[in-house]
Design a protein that fits this description.
Strand content: 5-15%
Shape: globular
Order of helices and strands: EHEHEEHHHHEE
Radius of gyration: 19 Å
Largest sheet: 2 strands, parallel
Mean pLDDT: 84
Length: 188
């Protein structure tokens, strides 16, 4: 088995020895583990949650929330104010449950990090080759056709309220549907 061949250990032994362990299979962990493996390292990627094939449940259903979200999607932080949030607990982490939304780090955040932490080479121009490599590797794209009705309704409501509404690129390939819309092809 080469270093880029995944090996899922369903019933792991009580002790595993490795040189590099990456905890979490979300975007940060997955990319880190991939880059280390491509550099020839033997990497152990540890994920608390389970692996669920795309066909394991209907997308965006209550069953998917129970499968993939921590606490079935019912998580709260108590304080002032009370905050409700969702967190992935599955292979793919937060990106698996947030529809694989993709954002480049905004320029103002990069500038703040550069200034506050004295990091050189942290401009949009410096990071462009890295952004592009990530976007190519995970096939980031926008909808190739008409948006689904639910998305159009959200856009209409936001516009009426004077809010900005925009499409966020995702880590998916799309396929055309008979109604002229598109749907995720299931590549992730």
């Amino acid at each position: 088995m080469n270093s880029l061949t995944p090996n899922v250990i369903i019933d792991p032994p009580t002790t595993l020895i490795c040189k590099i362990a990456v905890v979490g299979s979300g975007p940060g962990g997955a990319i880190t583990a991939c880059l280390l493996a491509e550099a020839g390292e033997n990497v152990l990627l540890i994920e608390e949650g389970s692996f669920w094939p795309l066909e394991s449940c209907e997308p965006f259903s209550p069953a998917e929330m129970i499968q993939k979200y921590r606490h079935g999607g019912l998580t709260a932080a108590f304080g002032k104010p009370k905050i409700q949030y969702v967190e992935g607990c599955c292979v793919g982490g937060g990106s698996e449950i947030n529809s694989a939304l993709y954002h480049r780090t905004p320029a103002e955040i990069l500038e703040r990090w550069r200034r506050d932490f004295a990091v050189d080479g942290l401009t949009e121009k410096d990071l462009l080759p890295h952004f592009t490599a990530c976007e190519t590797a995970v096939q980031v794209c926008s909808l190739p056709g008409k948006a689904p009705i639910a998305s159009l309704k959200l856009h209409e409501g936001a516009t009426r309220l004077g809010w900005e509404s925009l499409e966020v690129p995702r880590w998916f390939q799309y396929q055309a549907q008979t109604d002229g819309t598109t749907s995720p092809q299931g590549t992730r």
